[in-house]
Write a structure and sequence with these properties.
28% of the residues lie in helices and 29% in strands. It is α+β, with helices and mostly antiparallel strands. The protein has a single domain, classed as Dihydrodipicolinate Reductase, domain 2. Strand 2 and strand 3 form a beta hairpin. Helix 2 crosses helix 4.
Length: 207
């Protein structure tokens, strides 16, 4: 649903304008501390829990969206809880064919400032509220040429309403441009590679 926020169209326009130069590094973070709630699906291995699939997936999606291609290298490390048996906090890195590299942090047992930043050869671009958006206006911060500029983007609708409207507009196409079938498959493949790297195996995958 986060991709249905109009701010991502503005992000794309800023990148394509060349204001921050060529995209070089992507930075993302999404984490929260839910405490010892071991009856919650996020901390249950059999339910497919863990930080990567709950919130880290947003970070990975953002990196793939901005890079516009699939990563050729995926590496992740995580703390797998002894009781939950899922990744409670993790970090990962991605490398893309164009040379773009990305790093992210995620977790359900830690507090990390939310981040979605694009670092280019000539400047940077920060999305202040990347995952859920505000009900009214969100801001982008562009740092380039020694100056910082704040750009406001109006949400207009609830973000989930935007998602529903996007689906409705493309119902006859059977897929939405904001998240195509190929994009969805690329996302799952990347998450699977990261899970393998961190050693996270779900009960249903054991022979």
């Amino acid at each position: 649903m986060y991709r249905c926020h109009p701010q991502w169209k503005t992000v794309r326009e800023i990148i394509e304008s060349g204001r921050i130069g060529e995209v070089r590094i992507l930075e993302a973070a999404f984490a929260f501390n839910m405490g010892p709630a071991y009856d919650n699906i996020r901390l249950i291995n059999a339910a497919g829990g863990g930080g990567l699939l709950d919130v880290g997936c947003y970070c990975v999606s953002f990196c793939r969206l901005i890079a516009g291609e699939e990563p050729t290298q995926c590496h992740a490390v995580a703390h797998i809880g002894s009781k939950s048996r899922v990744d409670e906090q993790a970090t990962g890195v991605l490398k893309f064919p164009s040379g773009i590299v990305a790093y992210f942090a995620c977790g359900v047992q830690c507090s990390v400032p939310t981040a979605a930043k694009i670092h280019g050869s000539e400047g940077s671009l920060s999305v202040t509220s990347p995952w859920f958006g505000n009900e009214d206006t969100d801001t982008l911060i562009v740092n380039a040429g020694g100056k910082a500029e704040t750009i406001s983007v109006k949400l207009e609708h609830n973000l989930y309403a935007n998602e529903a409207l996007a689906v409705a507009r493309h119902i006859d196409d059977r897929q939405c441009p904001a998240m195509s079938w190929d994009d969805s498959l690329g996302q799952v493949r990347t998450l699977d590679a990261l899970r393998t790297g961190m050693g996270l195996v779900f009960d249903c995958e054991k022979g």
